[in-house]
Design brief:
22 strands, Jelly Rolls, 3 domains, Immunoglobulin-like, mainly beta, single chain, about 10% helix, eight-stranded antiparallel sheet, Seminal Fluid Protein  PDC-109 (Domain B)
Length: about 350
């Protein structure tokens, strides 16, 4: 039985339904049902023909599907072949009878590779102890009395033996850099890197930085949850962003995600997701919109999650908002990582000498 049912209303007088699906995950089998509830000028149509579907995967291969009809409904359930490749997927549902073949639904979605049990430290949030020690050893002579800038090192030390891809972070000569182009192994080439300054104001960094601070903790509430996003979005009106989050609910039904009160800086679109009883990660892409000030509203912009039907405990964690059209896996914001490192060191050291002793540096 399909876990996620996507049945869209289709009136034959208006043409097929053009829809966006929730994110899907690899290794699923028949986890998604896609179909149509068919009417003609508002009146239900009894479907007497056959239903079929096709799915076009990210590599442009086509998966053929045999569907089913029942009354005025026609649908397909996605087989395992539809989940084998990470990337965009386009699904078409058709019905064939004596009068010909009619496309009822044209839907697009995204298949995300399922996470494995392997935990990988990408080296772009908090470095390993050995990397941190090496960073202090390399830069200790240049550290002022306030050595906190060193703790902004959230990347491996630059090495002439390593190649770097655009978007990678590295530590070089006491400063943090981000590759703006692919950098081959060899000597440092300043034209291929840009300096990174981590401050409370650096809300957005293209390349996966989480623009929303302190959002790893779970939020739970009845029917409604919101996130303050206006300050992070106000300098990015018109730009494309991706929003992702883990969500579950006590009752599995649609939750509306929208610009709360149409005020301040928020998302342009209103979308719907259907959570299950356990956490599932969802994502969507939209643009930033400035709704302006609204009388009686004091916030600068929020994203709201709302159950339109009734009481339902909604829980959300690992909320992330980033520039770009593809949502990347959750990570702590650079600012939160910096603050966590600062707090850890502040609890143990007060001087450079104590820092060296704490880390076992001679």
């Amino acid at each position: 039985m399909a876990q996620f049912v996507n049945m869209f209303p289709v009136d034959l007088a208006n043409g097929p339904a053009l829809k966006t699906l929730n994110q899907m995950h690899s290794a699923n089998v028949k986890a998604n049902r896609v179909g149509a509830i068919v009417t003609n000028n508002g009146a239900p149509v009894t479907l007497s023909g056959t239903c079929s579907g096709t799915a076009i995967l990210a590599d442009h291969t086509t998966v053929a599907m045999t569907g089913a009809t029942s009354g005025n409904q026609a649908y397909v359930e996605l087989p395992s072949a539809c989940y084998t490749m990470e990337g965009p997927i386009h699904i078409f549902v058709t019905c064939t009878d004596a009068n010909g073949t009619t496309t009822l639904v044209a839907a697009s979605g995204y298949v995300r590779a399922t996470e494995t049990d392997t935990v990988i430290d990408p080296g772009t949030i908090i470095p390993s102890v050995s990397q941190l020690i090496q960073a202090i050893e390399d830069a200790v002579d240049s550290i002022p009395a306030d050595y906190s800038s060193l703790l902004a090192s959230i990347a491996p030390i630059f090495s002439t033996e390593d190649a770097y891809s655009a978007g990678d972070y590295v530590w070089h000569s006491g400063s943090l850099y981000r590759a703006i182009d692919n950098a081959p192994a060899g000597s440092w080439n300043a034209s291929l890197f840009e300096p990174v300054v981590i401050t409370a104001e650096s809300r957005f960094t293209v390349g996966g930085n989480n623009a929303v601070l302190l959002q790893r903790t779970e939020k739970s509430a009845n029917r409604f949850i919101y996130y303050d996003v206006g300050n992070a979005l106000q300098d990015h009106v018109g730009e494309t962003i991706s929003v992702s989050f883990d969500m579950k609910a006590s009752t599995s039904r649609q939750i509306r995600v929208n610009p709360y009160q149409n005020a301040g800086y928020s998302i342009e679109d209103m979308v719907y997701f259907t959570p299950s009883l356990d956490y599932v990660r969802f994502s969507f892409t939209t643009k930033v919109k400035n709704y302006g000030a609204v009388s009686g509203v004091s916030h600068n912009g929020r994203i709201g999650f709302y159950d339109e039907v009734g009481d339902n405990t909604i829980s959300i964690k690992n909320f992330k908002m980033e520039l770009g059209s593809v949502a990347t896996p959750w990570q702590m914001s650079a600012q939160d990582a910096y603050a966590e490192m600062m707090n850890t060191f502040a609890a143990n050291v007060a001087t450079v000498a104590e820092a060296k002793a704490y880390l076992g540096i001679e």
